[in-house]
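[#protein-structures] MJ: dropping F-box protein At1g78280 here for a structure pass
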Amino acid sequence: MHSGVCNSNGQLQSETSAAFIKDRRADALGDLRVLPDEILCNILTTLAPRDVARLSCVSSVMYILCNEEPLWMSLCLSIVNRQLEYKGTWKKTTLHQLDLPQAYNEASRRPLQFDGFNSLFLYRRLYRCYTSLNGFSFDDGNVERRENLSLEEFRKEYDGQKPVLINGLADNWPARKSWTSEQLLLKYPDTKFRISQRSSKKINMKFKDYSSYMQIQHDEDPLYIFDDKFGEAAPDLLKDYSVPYLFQEDYFDVLDTDQRPPFRWLIIGPERSGASWHVDPGLTSAWNTLLCGRKRWALYPPGRVPLGVTVHVNEDDGDVNIETPTSLQWWLDFYPLLPDKDKPIECTQLPGETIYVPSGWWHCVLNLETTVAVTQNFVNSKNFEFVCLDMAPGYHHKGICRAGLLALDDVGFEDVEKNAPGIESGSSYLELTRKEKRVKVCQSQEDRNCGNGTNGMCQGDGLGDLEYSYDINFLSMFLNNERDHYTSLWSPSNCIGQREMRDWLWKLWVGRPGLRDLVWKGACLALNSGKWYERVREICAFHEFPLPLHDEKLPVGTGSNPVYLIDDYAIKIFAEGGLEASLYGLGTELEFLNVLHNLNSSLKNYIPSVLASGILVLINGSFKVLPWDGRGIPEVISSSNLLSIKHKEVDYPFGVWGKKQFEYQTAGKPLHESGNCGKSYSMWPYIVTKRCRGKIFAELRDILSLEDALNLASFLGEQLHNLHLLPVPCSSPNNRIQMVEEDCIQPSLGNRCSENIGDKIDHPPAEWKLFISILNKQRKNILSRLAEWGDPIPSKLIEKVDDYIPHDLTVLFDIFQNETEVSRSCTWIHTDVMDDNIYMASCCPASLSEESISDPCQADSRYVKRSNSSTGQKHSWYPSHILDFSNLSIGEPILDIIPLFLDVFRGDSHLLKQFLESYRLPLLRKESLKESVENSRFSQLSYRAMCYCILHNENVLGAIFSLWTELRTATSWEEVEEKVWGDLNNYTGYC
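AK: finished. structure tokens for F-box protein At1g78280:
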């Protein structure tokens, strides 16, 4: 390589001639001269394009830095708001995105040139932009190459053990001939594919635009088609290939395509593009088949962090982030520094070859020329436990899986032994602070004797002779078993969420009985199922219920609390939110059921009857069951000093008003700051109810007829009508919560407790003031919460939230109040009417009669469909029960319509209309509005519903933008409001 530096014109300048020219850097940068060029360039990427343009006028060096193409590439990708078309340079492309006049581009003068500024950093970046990789390859590498590999040989020699290149698996694919950039351009010119780039934004490009970009670009890290949705964009592409016989065992295939995590990708990229160092998501394994071009691969076994890579593991939720150079930068700048013994396993993949990458292996890929490939990730018997381990809450094990013993540089082996599986943690808990766990960069391996095998030895600081082994028993020792896995934060880097994980394990448990031993092992890793099973056995033994059979060991459902179906019983152990939240969940449910019983509401016929309830306590290593009906404060609780709110002796101290007080304390706080998230206590509230026969609606959604669905909507309308008419318990002087904060409001009036109230909005009823106070606390951190949720919520809408939602939510409730009355009081709300909380019973019309149904609660003739011989209907389903009232709260009835419409009805306006016809209650009495606000948007049901969606503790907006994908390009919240909730404005209710 020529020895020299790079001047402002991007030209090489000899070191000799450069020495006679005064360095202009100090004068041009002033105090900023102390910062390296790399830091300055990184700072510039955080600015808006217009600010960068202004800054370029400050000085000559700023002019040079502000006109770098990599900078404008970053700026452009961060502000893309229209179809991305590359205009020859990234600065011109950015101006096009900003819709600046074309005349500006044409009138732009030639770039200025300055001597006296030399930058090795800019030179290296320029070199990477223009380097050619024609001769950059190796003949064979050291990855084994195989042909005619049998399934038995693959499982014995490679599966879960080491990479292998296999030839011939794609010989009969149509893609083998048709997947070239030229052929794809002819067939899919206007098809949009997803682009992979170092930006959080999801960007799609038409293939004709991307093909044009590939031909003329000179980027150091070119845009790369890496599309997991290509089967939706171009369905015919799925017909051009098939999963090779070696990889057809995939446990994710029990999930529907829209439920399973991303698993297949179309990959197209030009020379110099590629995938930087990473471990595949969820510790899955992968196969990658190349159809055209050449790829250079580098791989390290699990636990061997490549030179130049840093692993970050968040101590709260275990989220893993990787800092890594680009693929090209690593090969050019880091690879030459490695001694032979530390070099990776390498190979050059040729067209028609398939490479297998085992679970946990680090790999980096560089395209040596334009390539087209397809890849899929999968879970099989060899990596299933690793995938489940990766899902588990905590951070030690995640760091160990990726960085080996480098992740243990500040943790002694004694702590690992303490947390080893099978050791009950009791009530102790390792308090964690909110900070990142930074795993040291694995520098040259000269000081660490790490073998290339999966069971290599690696000496860690202070760990003596501890041997690193990529073995599930060894890795599981690093799990933090002092956390309750049902309540801990779920890592955002997990390939599926907690709810989806439980659903997946349950479907495997039911649908693949032969895998139950393996599924149980995975469930113990991810969900602590072994410990929950131990607890439910204690509850069964105390109440003399049958003990769970082998088939009943796994918790059912997708909720946040372990639920077991055993014989004729359903047992739920409360864990969500920690002990205090669990006590309020059970206490409120028991209080509500008492109200139902006293009023003899017909709603009780559709709620499973309670057979037992209490608290399971672990004392000195032994379990003890304490029955509790929700009344009073159990001595074990009052003496524990674990509660944040001090209660007086009242009927239901953990009832709905206590729960609202607790909601006020925790409202607006991030989950990791709640103090209870993931905390393992030695007490667990529980409830036992009669088991419902039939299936949950979530399992039947796709097979229900339209008539059955409309029938369900009518049923839900009537039952929520009954729920919202129930009186909320009044708070009397003898039934009050001791205040712990000065601005907490003591509720004093309940639903239906007063016919007329003279207070104006300055002095609203206590229940409303508490309700509004909670909303205002949720409002305070709304921007950060929405930004954290991110995709698919459009970022441009997040920026407009402040203009859409009032800063003081009190104004929303002006419309409820006039001189003499409150038009709508707080009501009970279920808050969680979702597809897994609705039970459906089977109805076979040919033989069914009302007399043949043993349970009169399930024989309501309004919901049981009769035989229809003219249509040949042989089987149908009718709604029988609504489950899970532990999330009960009080507030506006519209809060119950949100989960119902989005999760049960999936945005179907016909079902919503059917529901409202049966609901028959006013959601807002417009005749009692003040004239001054009658035409205000605050009076519109659609606006109120949209506000509640934005303020919701759960990611309701994610559901909205997943159901209505066209709204991801919406430019205003009003547009989203009208599309999703506009039909509510036509509802007047019945007075």
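MJ: nice. The chain has five domains: 4-130, 145-309+323-382, 387-424+432-532, 533-691, 724-835+890-986.
AK: one more thing. The domain at 145-309+323-382 is CATH 2.60.120.650 (Jelly Rolls).
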